[in-house]
Specification:
By secondary structure, the chain is mostly helical. 70% of the residues lie in helices and 0% in strands.
């Protein structure tokens, strides 16, 4: 049920995903969904956990065997591709807070964070600055990908060239520390 909800969110947008539209998609009556999820909020949280796990797998797989700028570029491209391919499910991850350490959302978030933390091993980032570096990378990659999904780059410069520029910018910034 969650996978079907995630796919529908990617098609129609998370804001347009309803229990009724999901029931229609899977060919059941809406009350039947409550055997699988407790409601819209539960569905959205489960989609968020799914998305974080998928993004972690994409980023983690992309950086295997790479270090430094190569790992940064592989992670950035994998993350961007994930957001562009799955905008609805990625949107579910924004602002969701784990209810505790045993929440599947917390574990999924830690996997994605771990994939990005691995990139920083190729840079001389002091331990007290790791959180700042992670927030910076998240801001750069999240911001670019979500702006692109929202058609926020409407001027003539090539988007892929701009993304390559962003990677160089991030690499130089990380090397400055």
């Amino acid at each position: 049920m969650v996978a079907a909800g995630a796919a529908l969110a990617d098609e129609v947008g998370l804001a347009n995903l309803t229990m009724g539209s999901l029931a229609e998609r899977v060919g059941v009556r809406t009350p039947s969904l409550y055997k699988h999820v407790s409601g819209q909020e539960d569905l959205n949280r489960r989609i968020a956990a799914l998305a974080l796990n998928e993004a972690a797998a994409a980023v983690g797989g992309a950086v295997q065997g790479y270090a430094g700028r190569d790992a940064l570029e592989a992670a950035a491209r994998a993350f961007r591709a994930f957001v562009l391919q799955h905008p609805g499910r990625y949107a579910a991850t924004i602002g969701e807070e784990p209810s505790g350490p045993d929440d599947p959302l917390a574990a999924a978030g830690q996997r994605l964070l771990g994939a990005f933390t691995a990139i920083l091993r190729g840079y001389e980032i002091a331990e007290p600055d790791v959180d700042h570096a992670l927030r910076t990378l998240r801001s750069l990659f999240h911001g670019f990908a979500t702006l692109q999904v929202a058609n926020g780059f409407q001027w003539s410069a090539d988007i892929d060239e701009s993304f390559a520029w962003l990677i160089v910018f991030a690499d130089r910034g990380l090397r400055a520390f």
